[in-house]
Design brief:
The chain is an all-alpha fold. It has one domain. It has five helices and no strands. Helix 1 runs parallel beside helix 5, helix 2 crosses helix 3 and helix 2 runs antiparallel to helix 5.
Amino acid sequence: MLSEALAAVASVGGTALVAAMVTDGWEGIKTRLARLISRGSASETGTADAWLDQSRAALQGLTGVELDRARIEQEIVWRTRLGDLLERYPGVEAELRDLIAEMENQALTAGGTVQQSFAAFDQAQQAVLGQGTQNVTFGGRHEPGRAQG
């Protein structure tokens, strides 16, 4: 039975892994994780590669609720696999934590900056939805294309 701490590592790892599947650095993460899972066995590395490819393929081309559902399913799959790995080889915890930190860092930097501009006049109201850090600036009352005086 996994300790609470190791179960938390497996859970965070599953979430970070699924997020990393859509980043530019995915191939490096995939290679390192397959090596970690296989513990040096060439045949098990191939199996781990196939699992990772299947998980990534399950997410491709999906949007909206379908993508959310697929992500949750893959997070559960990988939470279980990483939990099994930690249960069999508790000594991999430090290496897995390092890989999780790298995946989380990639996910943070992969998003880049998004800038949106909205204009409303008179009694108009706007609602802006998003995630992450949002900075809202209320500008002067002028119409677009007109010089401010």
